[in-house]
Write a structure and sequence with these properties.
- The protein is mostly helical and 201 residues long.
- 53% of the residues lie in helices and 5% in strands.
- It is built from 10 helices and 4 strands.
- The chain has a two-stranded parallel ribbon.
- α1 crosses α8, α2 packs antiparallel against α3 and α9 runs antiparallel to α10.
- The radius of gyration is 18 Å and the shape is globular.
- The two termini are 28 Å apart.
Length: 201
Amino acid sequence: MAQELEHPPVRHTLCDHPRCDFLLTAFDHGLFEPIVSTMVLDEVERTLIDDFRHVNPGSLRRRVEHMRAALADQTVDVDAAGFARVVAINAKDHHVVVAPLAAEATCLVTNDNALGSEITGSGLSIEALDGDAFVLRIREASPISVSEVIDALIAKRCRPPVSPASMAVRLHVHFPAMAAVWLAQHGGGPILPAEPPFRFG
């Protein structure tokens, strides 16, 4: 379980991104504990600066520093011995796999099907799950807590207000199985195509 954080993860993102918001809020609620490597955080910083050239690089670096502070207890340094364990994995993904192995995590969450297949066939002591399977497993373990997470997502979106059904539609884009199960158990109908994303602060 995640420990209570002195510096909670940043929620004000460049644009409304329900997937990130759901995961950060679920982390805040103690539903899972993420494990990241220092190399991954360095990669996030480089990618943000490369992809958002219209944003002040200093501002982006400060966002990543907030992430580093919030995830200080969940950050793992990887070493040569760790890399030696993952020779069966594509070299570009070694740092992604080494960190959760070093922390003895139960699963690695990735939407990269190729990486997931490599992990499954490698014999490593970790399970590969895509994002939807991961959040569905969280919901199966803690359905009431996941409903509280979704309520929190709805509550912070007040301009314009968002209904539970609308939030389910937005989450369905990223987590279709979980969103469908949640909506069905809350009296909702079938999920229609998502509306365009909107900004929030």
